[in-house]
Specification:
By secondary structure, the chain is of the alpha/beta class. It has three domains: 188 residues, FAD/NAD(P)-binding domain (3-Layer(bba) Sandwich), CATH 3.50.50; 133 residues, 3-Layer(bba) Sandwich (FAD/NAD(P)-binding domain); 72 residues, Sandwich (Immunoglobulin-like), CATH 2.60.40. It is 21% helix and 32% strand.
């Protein structure tokens, strides 16, 4: 029997496994469905990774290599090219998986860390109208073709959505000689990091059309044109605002979805906002002994944040296996005005200081983050000069304030009038 099985060998799984090893676990297994460790980082050949965690600028493969080496310096077991089929909670937990090397396995473990990452939302999920020619890719698929397989996916490109992968691919395609005609965003604000807007669009004079979307796709065998229209405040196309782009490639950067099929099958309570599991402050789900971290829990901006969150999960899993009992009384943390979601959704009293990650629902200028208890009494406030949905926010709540709180907590945003 294993002490811990980590499902997923990307940045989240690697960090969780290494931290669990450092905390004293010696029977640790990583299950990874790909042929190598590292996850999505292997195709992210641009720099900008590691500024928070390693205090230097790395590419995605360099960042992954640091943690792969850390795993290789231990006796953590790794099974690659292994697909996990089912997770059955219990005492012990059972993980059903299959691979060419080991066949069908039923593995037993005292604890599990879910670190399966996320997938891209494709054309079918957003109901794009028009024909179905070749030349339409998700941004991540195009990134893999270009950076890992060596295929150029197109020469005249339109990008739908301003997520970070789409913005980075705008720059990448330009550097490879393609012409990126436009980046089109349905919302009145970008969903990507500000630094990527500047470095990937503005520096290359690529126009960003906010409050616009693709309303027609033309082309029989290969994509020939896309029609882009402005949308109103209800996100409905406005007749007469059509723009026609002659192009051979459309990249979709329209959101990421946590890979939570295993989580749902295990009857782990889910959060409808994050599309991940409901977790306590130590990343434990509401099923004892099962933890979740990284993009399977909620979609992150920076891999450094994934690493920090996953280390908390790995350390908590180690404490669970070693018999440490968590406090039972937990305060629910809910999202109030201006907040899309919070992680964690439950905070146990006596846990000490707790880091809370969340996203806002729209762009805010000068404002404050307010945390109130059930009596409406503010227990903490944090000033901010600017917040946007594309950039995840984080605050730290002191343990002494949490212990004094009456009932549940609500996190909301209050705008401040500038004088």
């Amino acid at each position: 029997m294993y002490e811990l099985i980590v499902i997923g060998g990307g940045p989240a799984g690697l960090a969780a496994a290494r931290e669990a090893w450092d905390q004293g676990l010696r029977k640790v297994l990583i299950l990874e469905r790909d042929q190598e460790l590292g996850g999505i980082l292997n195709q992210c050949i641009h720099n900008g990774f590691g500024l928070h965690h390693f205090h230097e600028e790395l590419t995605g493969p360099e960042y992954a290599a640091r943690f792969i080496q850390q795993i290789q310096d231990t006796d953590v077991e790794v099974q690659l090219d292994t697909m996990v089929l089912q997770l059955l909670p219990g005492a012990p937990h059972q993980v059903h998986c299959v691979s060419a090397q080991h066949g069908y396995q039923i593995l037993e473990t005292k604890a599990v860390v879910l670190a399966m990452g996320c997938r891209e939302r494709a054309r079918g999920a957003i109901a794009l109208p028009g024909e179905r020619p070749a030349g339409i890719f998700t941004a991540g698929a195009a990134q893999r073709y270009l950076n890992m397989e060596g295929y150029m996916v197109g020469r005249r490109v339109v990008i739908l959505g301003s997520g970070d992968i789409g913005l980075i691919m705008a720059r990448r395609m330009t550097l490879e000689g393609a012409r990126v005609l436009a980046c089109v965003e349905l919302m009145p604000y970008s969903s990507g990091l500000t630094r990527n807007i500047v470095q990937c669009l503005e520096d290359y004079h690529i126009p960003l059309y906010l409050s616009h979307t693709v309303t027609d796709i033309r082309g029989h065998n290969r994509l020939e044109q896309v029609v882009v229209s402005q949308v109103d405040e209800h996100r409905r196309p406005i007749p007469g605002t059509e723009l026609v782009f002659d192009c051979d490639t459309l990249l979709l950067s329209v959101g990421l979805i946590p890979e939570n099929e295993l989580t749902r099958q295990a009857d782990i309570p889910m959060d409808g906002r994050t599309h991940g599991a409901v977790v306590f402050e130590n990343m434990e789900t509401q099923v004892p002994g099962i933890f979740a971290c990284g993009n399977v829990l909620h979609v992150h901006d920076l891999v450094d944040y994934v690493t920090a969150e996953s280390q908390r999960a790995g350390a908590a899993a180690a404490r669970y296996v070693q018999g440490e009992q968590a406090a039972h009384e937990a305060l629910p943390l809910t999202h109030g005005s201006g907040v899309s979601y919070t992680v964690p959704q439950r905070i146990r009293r006596g846990s000490g200081k707790v880091q809370v990650l969340f996203r806002v629902g729209r762009v805010f200028g000068t404002s404050r983050i307010v945390v109130k208890d059930d009596t409406g009494t503010p227990i903490a406030q944090f000033p901010r000069s600017h917040m946007a949905p594309g950039e995840m926010e984080q605050i730290t709540l002191p343990g002494v304030l949490l212990d004094r709180a009456a009932g549940g907590l609500t996190l909301s945003i209050e705008e401040v009038e500038e004088t």
